[in-house]
Amino acid sequence: MRFFQVKSFLNHWLDVVDEHSIHSPFFFDFYYQVIRKKNDPVFIEIEKVRGRLLSNQSFVNAKDLGAASPHFKGAKRTIARIAATSLNEEKQCALFYRIARYVEAKHILELGTSFGITSLYFSKIEDAKVTTFEGNPAMINIAQTNFDYFNQKNIELIEGNIDHTLSDRLQNPEKIDFALIDANHQYEPTIRYFNLIAKRMSDHGIMVIDDIYYSEGMAHAWNELKKHDLVYGSIDLFRCGILLFDLNLNKQHFIWSH
Ligand SMILES: C[S@@+](CC[C@H](N)C(=O)[O-])C[C@H]1O[C@@H](n2cnc3c(N)ncnc32)[C@H](O)[C@@H]1O
User: What's the CA angle centered on 87, arms 29 and 40, to 5 degrees?
Assistant: First the structure.
């Protein structure tokens, strides 16, 4: 962890509250059904694919399209190292799955597919359609192979730089119930992607911003987004931030551990 992340983590840890300070029935339910829930369905087959990626020493060209990765110097990287450093871990994927399931998501958007592990988790939600965006050709290739392996027909992979592909895709007026923003971890693109997607969120929709303390820019973006006019509740889990669009919520902000 870099100095900024250590400092942010300590602040987060000092501010964390538990269930005793939750008075809203919605947040109370969300805390137990989503954040604290332990008996997840187990995604053994998807995790086996992650295991194979983690031991694959082949090199791919993985030039950063978003914020520069602190883990690599050049663009030539092993699949194993990318899998170890840039994918969401099993615990995190299961959390995203539970959030999307909690809102009974029919349409899920993911910015930043990478090898498609999290997209595969989402694809297991009954009746859900997953639209995932990736710009790196090597990642696209591997993600598509993984989707084909599972014969998963409810995932659409949009190829190309999100700066160009997202607004095109959002011409489609279909509402989004769950969105995961996990691509270009910098202030300006995060705000820009939020503004594009927020207009399309359904009334009960939830958006997750990953890596909110990746950098000062990301923390700045998170601070702005949780106060945004269209956001009616937010939860800071340190590793990611959850934004809720339901008008019936009371503009409450929580800091929880996960
Ligand atoms: C952190 S990884 C995504 C991890 C994935 N969501 C998961 O949970 O496993 C970020 C991905 O976003 C992609 N990305 C970053 N900026 C992008 C951009 N502007 N357009 C398209 N893809 C981008 C990168 O190539 C990388 O594969």
Answer: 35
Q: Of 85, 156, 170, give the one whose Cα is nearest residue 122.
A: 156
- If one residue of 114, 123, 133, 187 were mutated to test the ligand 1 pocket, choosing by the most ligand atoms within 8 A of its CB, it would be 114
Q: What is the pLDDT of residues 22-71, one digit of tens each?
A: 889 999 999 999 999 876 778 999 999 999 999 999 999 877 776 677 77
**Digit-coded pLDDT (tens) for 166-188:** 999 999 889 999 999 999 999 99
Q: Which domain holds residue 111?
A: 3-41+88-255
pTM: 0.94
The domain that contains 184 carries what CATH number?
3.40.50.150
State which of 46, 60, 86 you would mutate to test the pocket of ligand 1, scoring each by most atoms of that ligand within 8 A of its C-beta.
86
86 C-beta closer than 6 A to ligand 1: yes
Residue 243 lies in a domain: yes
Residue 50 belongs to some domain of the structure: no
The total number of structural domains that make up the chain: 1
